[in-house]
Design brief:
There is one protein chain. The protein is mainly alpha-helical. The protein folds into 2 domains: 63 residues, Winged helix-like DNA-binding domain superfamily/Winged helix DNA-binding domain (Arc Repressor Mutant, subunit A), CATH 1.10.10; 35 residues, no CATH class. A 3-stranded antiparallel β-sheet has the order 1-3-2. A hairpin with a 6-residue loop joins strand 2 and strand 3. Helix 2 crosses helix 3. 12% of the residues are buried.
Length: 112
């Protein structure tokens, strides 16, 4: 199930993590949740981030009622699978495969 979407970084990834966790959120809820250390995130920053995510096909904007909400268009599992697939197609795929095997072994030992 390839989604063909660009890699996420920074605020975009943090926003998507919130949407994956909460399913639907308003811009204000996202703004409050992204504030760190008591430092608020500017409204314009969130608006631009959500616009970029929408243009990349990661979120949909529901304007049918107030407040408007945003929702992820793909599940987190789909995003992770795609990112791992990209890594496996790189020249360093042997190193990535070895890392994933070690990670799985660690999880089995730690009971996760």
């Amino acid at each position: 199930m390839a989604y063909g979407k660009p890699h996420l970084r920074g605020t975009e990834l943090a926003t998507m993590m919130l949407l994956w966790r909460h399913e639907k959120m308003s811009r204000r809820e996202l703004q409050q949740a992204l504030a760190t250390g008591g430092k608020p995130v500017a409204s314009g920053t969130i608006q631009k981030c959500l616009a970029r995510l929408a243009s990349k096909g990661y979120v949909v904007h529901d304007r049918s009622r107030m407040p408007h909400t945003f929702q992820a268009t793909i599940p987190i599992e789909g995003y992770v699978i795609e990112q791992v697939s990209v890594l496996l197609n790189d020249e360093a795929s042997d190193a990535v495969i070895a890392f994933l095997k070690r990670l799985l072994q660690y999880q089995k030992r730690s009971g996760r």
